[in-house]
Every structure is written in structure tokens, then in C-alpha cells.
Write a sequence for this structure.
């Protein structure tokens, strides 16, 4: 509610770019070549953030009425919070990957002069010995739980923004949330 009522657009832009900044930071720390696609990916992230916030605003305006007028900047700030969760997942996954398979980044460095696509990453990951099968299974389970937790936190942020944006019952708020998530999925697919 505080983010909706007292938005900080500068912080929101940084939060919207945070996953891209984390990826660039990891690439720099590990000595990887920075992809020429990085600025395009950052632009897509900003465009998705703005478009999904506008879609949410329009849904709220259509279904909750004029009580949401003037809250677009607040919605931009709320939606940007979900990018913080994405950045946190990236950092935790990198730390866990390094802890469980210390040789993985050395293998990835060898791929720098190749295409470095998903098949290359899978092939490099298969060459690195894993600590143990139990550890790998535990890692996979932890990543799954972590992903679900961060997904639920993101959905909660969206729902809290919807609920705080204006009057409406739980059913109406859940309907708006479902529509907003569908629209965001469509936007994400479109921006690919």
C-alpha cells in the first residue's frame, strides 16, 4: 500500500532493470563476455514492466472505476517490486550452482568463443561432476521451492496492489489479478 501511495519512479526503474544488472554483474565477475543482446534485453524488460503496469491500470480502471485515477506511477512501483524477486532468484541460483558444481563456470568460460546457446550450456553442465545425486536432488527441490515462493510473493504483490488501488471485494480482486496475469503472459510472449 505504501508503494502504491508513495511511489518512487527512480527506484522503480532500477528495480525493473535489476535482473539484467545482476546478469551483467555475474558475467563480469565470472569473466564472461557481455552479450551484445544485453541492452536489447534490458529494453524489453523495461517495456514489459511499463506495458504490464499500464495493462493492470486499465483493468483496474475498467473494473474498479475512477478510484484508481492517478495511481499509474504507484502501480509501476508495485510491479517493479516483482523484478526484485527475479533478481534474488538469479543470485541464489548462481551461488548454489557454484557451491554444488564449482567447475561449472570454468566449463561455461570455455564456451565463450562458441554460440553459447541452451544446448551448449546443457552439454557443458553434463561434463561437470556433481557432488552427489542426493545433493543434486536436494538442489533441484530447493530451486523448485524457491521458485514457487518467489512466484507466490510476486502474485501477492500484484494482489496487494490491486486490493489497495480501490474498492472491491476479494472475488473482484482475484478476477482482476487473473486477467492481469494473463495479459502479462501475453505481453511476455509478445516481447519474447
Amino acid at each position: 500500500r505504501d508503494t502504491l501511495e508513495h511511489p518512487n519512479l527512480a527506484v522503480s526503474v532500477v528495480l525493473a532493470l535489476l535482473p539484467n544488472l545482476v546478469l551483467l554483474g555475474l558475467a563480469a565477475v565470472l569473466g564472461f563476455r557481455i552479450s551484445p543482446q544485453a541492452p536489447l534485453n534490458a529494453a524489453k524488460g523495461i517495456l514489459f514492466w511499463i506495458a504490464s503496469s499500464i495493462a493492470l491500470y486499465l483493468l483496474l480502471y475498467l473494473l474498479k472505476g475512477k478510484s484508481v485515477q492517478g495511481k499509474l506511477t504507484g502501480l509501476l512501483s508495485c510491479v517493479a517490486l516483482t523484478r526484485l524477486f527475479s533478481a534474488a532468484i538469479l543470485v541464489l541460483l548462481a551461488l548454489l550452482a557454484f557451491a554444488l558444481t564449482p567447475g561449472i563456470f570454468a566449463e561455461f568460460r570455455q564456451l565463450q568463443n562458441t554460440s553459447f546457446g541452451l544446448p551448449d550450456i546443457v552439454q557443458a553442465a553434463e561434463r561437470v561432476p556433481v557432488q552427489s545425486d542426493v545433493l543434486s536432488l536436494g538442489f533441484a527441490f530447493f530451486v523448485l521451492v524457491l521458485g514457487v515462493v518467489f512466484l507466490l510473493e510476486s502474485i501477492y504483490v500484484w494482489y496487494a496492489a490491486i486490493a489497495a488501488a480501490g474498492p472491491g471485494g476479494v472475488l473482484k480482486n482475484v478476477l482482476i489479478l487473473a486477467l492481469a496475469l494473463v495479459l502479462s503472459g501475453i505481453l511476455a510472449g509478445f516481447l519474447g
